[in-house]
Amino acid sequence: MNRFSNKQHPRGKSSGRPSNNFGPPAKNHGRGKPQKPRRPAPPSAPRPVNYEETGMEVNYLKELVDAEKPIVVVLSTGEKIRGTVRYYDRDVFSLGPADGSPKIFLRKSGIRYLYEEE
């Protein structure tokens, strides 16, 4: 078959004009289209603060233990307990109740907040 004939090309292209394909197709080595210069990424939202990494919680609890400051702990149930911090850990701290009852170990996950009593 002549390459200048008007017959349909096997791939569905018209072969009405001479083909410029002499040899295998050019390789672009996996690069695809030429890439545009990248814009800088938009600023991301600030990461949430991990209070264990800052060390501020530990400093505050140490200050409460050393000064034996009276505090009020509000539990997630809404109950309030008054006392002083005797011991603290990563997950738990011990509270010596102000009414003289035995000390209580409280999980930090069960506490809504605490504040210093004046």
What does this entry show, briefly?
The chain is 14% helix and 26% strand.
Word description of this protein:
There is one protein chain. The chain is built from 2 helices and 5 strands; from the N terminus they run H-H-E-E-E-E-E. Strand 3 (92-97) and strand 4 form a beta hairpin. By secondary structure, it is an alpha+beta fold. The model has no long low-confidence stretch (mean pLDDT 80). The protein has a domain at 52-116: SH3 type barrels.
Q: Percent of residues in helical segments?
A: 10-25%
Order of helices and strands: HHEEEEE
Report the β-strand fraction as a percent range: 25-35%
Major sheet strand order:
4-3-2-1-5
Question: How would you state the average pLDDT, rounded?
Answer: 80
Secondary structure blueprint with pairings:
Blueprint: H1 51-54, H2 56-67, E1 70-75, E2 80-88, E3 92-97, E4 104-107, E5 111-116
Antiparallel strand pairs: 1-2, 1-5, 2-3, 3-4
